[in-house]
Amino acid sequence: MRKLREKFGLSREAFAPLLGASHQSVYSWERGSNRPRPEVIEKIAILRGMSKRQVLAVVEQHGPKAQKPAATEKKATKKKATKAVPE
């Protein structure tokens, strides 16, 4: 998303009103924490002279990579206790 905005040479604050969004929304799209709504994708496509599919491909290509699970989220393995057998 950032690359698309920078091709216009615009700041987030200047780009956001063109899309009917806030600069905070543009920031979150660029970070990958949120995705633009379909109507925003359509506006970007019109502004850039691209198809919606092309815009989505750019958003996907430059979006966040799949996150690895944190150490605390890993599945804990439990060891079964073995009972002591008297001899």
TrEMBL record:
GO molecular function: DNA binding
Region (Disordered): 61-87
CDD domains with a match to the protein in the record: HTH_XRE
HTH cro/C1-type domain span: 1-55
Lineage: superkingdom: Bacteria
PROSITE patterns per record: HTH_CROC1 (PS50943)
Pfam families given in the database record: HTH_3
Sections of the chain in a coiled coil: none
Compositional bias (Basic residues): 76-87
This protein's name: Helix-turn-helix family protein
Native source organism of the sequence: Lysobacter antibioticus
